[in-house]
Amino acid sequence: MSIRITHIRLSSNYDVDHENITDFRWVGYEDGKTGDSSKAILVDWIDGQGGKAYVESSRTKVAVGVVKPQGRKPYLRTYANGSWTDNLLSLPRF
To answer: Would the pTM of this model clear 0.70, i.e. be above it?
Structure first.
């Protein structure tokens, strides 16, 4: 299964950073199912279960990967053309 992440929720409106994203809203590509998931659930789904997530705009589809900083909890970030990118932070909030 693969999903398109459509919205994010941040723990703070003042510290807009990938590590502060707490929840994600998404839609399934194959079945159109929608849902909300916490950061921990999606990190495990992508990293441990082989799930695929993307962020789309009108012209691009960018993969979402798991970042594992030493001494801190893993988080999600988009990855395109060999670099970590900020597409998730551009999504609407819910």
So the answer is: yes
